[in-house]
Design a protein that fits this description.
The protein has 191 residues and is α/β, with parallel strands linked by helices. It contains 6 helices and 9 strands. The strands form 2 sheets. A 7-stranded mixed sheet has the order 5-4-3-6-7-9-8. A two-stranded antiparallel sheet has the order 1-2. The longest helix has 14 residues. The radius of gyration is 16 Å and the shape is globular. The relative contact order is 0.15.
């Protein structure tokens, strides 16, 4: 099976329901919201599935992409998809394993954009958001988008992350986060 992404490129998908690629309408919405911030960014794709979001980020000019996915078969497909779309000046890495454990290995790195799309019924939202905050993986001017069911919010608030927007697209909702500011001058200026 295949999926069409930005630039009319086709990437492979899994024939099973082990992964659920982000639908085209939602992918387009995310990249429209983040328009102008993808070129040369560092992109982290969590619960990457087929790697469609990571591949799309590379197609739109991300400098570096890291994709984390639990399933080995999916990682093989992600690797093939990213090899197909990456330019010579772009780097990517596919990491297999439990997303919460793998986030710890990224401590000390920061990402401009993080896309998080776990199985909607999973209990991954809170531990992943906490790990991103604890390991300071989101750059100070970065944003994180969590995909979820409109009927279920991604979890209780995380002190280091604030919600900056929420969007609903049919059966898919997106909650966007940015780092909270510890600087009272910045907080006062934005009010």
């Amino acid at each position: 099976m295949s999926l069409r992404i930005y630039g009319n490129r086709q990437i492979k998908t899994l024939a099973t329901l082990d992964t659920r690629p982000t639908v085209a309408r939602v992918r387009e919405a995310v990249f429209n919201i983040w328009q102008g911030t993808i070129i040369d960014c560092r992109w982290l794709d969590l619960c990457a599935g087929t790697g469609a979001m990571a591949a799309e980020a590379l197609c739109r000019g991300a400098a570096e992409v890291i994709a984390i996915e639990k399933w080995n078969r999916a990682c093989i497909i992600i690797e093939e998809n990213l090899q197909q779309v990456a330019g010579e000046d772009q780097t990517f890495q596919v990491v297999q394993g439990d997303v919460v454990k793998r986030l710890k290995t990224l401590a000390g790195q920061q990402f401009d954009r993080i896309y998080f799309d776990p199985p909607y019924a999973s209990n991954l939202y809170k531990p992943v958001l906490e790990a991103i905050a604890n390991y300071q993986l989101l750059a100070p001017a970065g944003e994180l988008a969590a995909e979820h069911s409109p009927a279920r919010l991604p979890g209780s608030p995380i002190p280091a992350l604030e919600i900056c927007r929420q969007k609903v697209y049919g059966n898919t909702a997106l909650t966007f986060y940015r780092p909270t500011s510890d600087d009272p001058l910045l907080t006062d200026a934005s009010e």
